[in-house]
Task: structure prediction
Amino acid sequence: MVMFPRGHAHEVAYSKRGRAIPLESFLAQRDGVLDSNPNATTLICGQFNMDQHLALPALRALPQVVALRAGMEPGSSSLSDTLRMLRHEVETSNFGNHIVVRNLLSSLFVYFMRGWADATSPAANDWFSALRSPQMTRVLALIHEAPDRAWTLEELAKEARLSRAALARNFCALVGEPPHQYLTRWRMGIAAQLLEETELRLGEIASRVGYRSEFSFSRAFKLARGVSPIQYRRAPRRYAPAGQREPGSVPS
Result:
């Protein structure tokens, strides 16, 4: 399994000298789903649209290309079992395929990240290292679960059973930024999702992400995203629909 965390253009070929053709041309030569040739290789491709500001610590910790080997034997791992179910749903037309595929892709992404994190060096100082620390995991969970709370460094340190200095030092070393900078960015990510996906008023969104007034929220959002919440909501979607991005290439 291969993932491109930053969406880099790529080619897929059967050898280094193999000739690649545009994805659309490859699919047009078949039914777009399944090749009945017994010698064919099955490729399952998908994409995840995410707020890069929200996912920054994880993305920053990943290389340009992440690769894992997943066996296809039943029960060998959660990753391989999810991949087998995904292949079955893609190749077999049935009621609710798209719903099942969407949920399996989400599970696949989580299992893939777990597998990669377990395979990397536990000594690496990055966001995944933070997840191996009970204290940092506790602090991250508190921020994620209650972004509306007015967290102080002292409160977070108490929850983690660390001194304020130790929490600030360890958090910066593992996550890559101070706790309150992470909290603000997480709040703005949640706010951006609410602006895109709901019709909630700005005052309600402000309250949900820990701001007492619409004015203070709007100021913080513009500082973080470069535009006001109103401008952000009115702007075209930041994610291109599937099929409108630069296509990958597959072997001819």
